[in-house]
Design goal:
Blueprint: E1 5-6, E2 14-18, E3 21-25, E4 39-40, H1 48-66, H2 73-80, H3 84-90, H4 94-117, H5 123-134, H6 140-152, H7 157-183, H8 192-211, H9 218-232
Antiparallel strand pairs: 1-4, 2-3
Helix pairs in contact: 1-2, 1-4, 2-3, 4-5, 4-7, 5-7, 6-8, 7-8, 8-9
């Protein structure tokens, strides 16, 4: 029965689950019956853009929990509370869905990270915060998501294109932070772009050890990344040391 049938003037509280939200029925178009008429609750339709975004968000969450390799359209449909056919309507293939889910997840993470970095005014403080955020072994689920995307991207052109775009955008953002440090007179790299790529590559090495459970090496690798970043930026040893 799609609707909720009410008869008479007596109000009956109820809840109707719609997607991920719950709609509380009380006084209003549904609830109180002033003249004894029968009222029927009908399911509200979401806009296509809202439904699509919801499906992508669910796929992104599942990928973060179990990895891209195990995500299926049917699994996403079940988690989203919709039919597999509806998921297929928006995403004919799981490759298309995973590519968009990965891009959304990585874009949000990168945006939040650089917003946090830019809350600091001094360039050295910004770089120190950037390293602190990326040398956090508690981010293992994000590192795993990235590793799975890179691996699957070898056989999935759509996902591979997203990975490449993300790498370029990441390097662009880090290069901006470095160039701001150059403008302020704090950083003295030989080449800002190369410094950004070198630092990112070192962080990838750290991340690979986090997800491979080589935790005994993390302290050494963390110091290596910090020391190398200082050399890349022309800073004195210990300048970027984490507190």
């Amino acid at each position: 029965m799609q609707g909720l049938l009410w008869k008479g003037c007596q109000q009956q509280p109820a809840q109707l689950a719609i997607g991920f939200s719950r709609l509380l029925l009380n006084d209003g178009p549904i609830g109180r019956c002033p003249y004894g008429e029968t009222k029927v609750q009908t399911r509200q339709r979401k806009l296509p853009s809202e439904r699509r975004s919801e499906i992508v968000a669910v796929a992104s969450r599942l990928a973060g929990e179990t990895g891209f390799g195990s995500v299926t359209l049917r699994q996403v449909a079940r988690a989203a509370g919709v039919t597999p056919g509806l998921v297929s309507h928006y995403f004919p293939t799981v490759e298309l869905l995973l590519a968009e889910a990965f891009e959304q997840a990585m874009t949000f993470q990168m945006r939040d990270m650089f917003e946090t970095v830019r809350k600091h005014e001094a360039s050295v403080d910004r770089m120190r915060m950037f390293l602190q955020l990326n040398l956090d072994e508690q981010r293992d689920s994000q590192y795993l998501l990235w590793a799975h995307a890179c691996l699957l991207g070898r056989d999935q052109p759509l996902l591979r294109d997203v990975v490449i775009r993300f790498l370029d955008t990441w390097d662009d953002e880090l290069e901006k932070v470095i160039r701001e440090g150059i403008d302020s007179g704090d950083f003295h790299p030989h080449d800002a772009r190369k410094a950004a790529v070198h630092i990112s590559a070192l962080l990838d090495s750290f991340a690979s050890h986090v997800i491979s459970f080589s935790r005994s090496r993390l302290g050494i690798l963390s110091e290596m990344v910090i020391d190398a970043s200082e050399r890349e930026l022309g800073l004195a040893s210990g300048t970027l040391k984490l507190s």
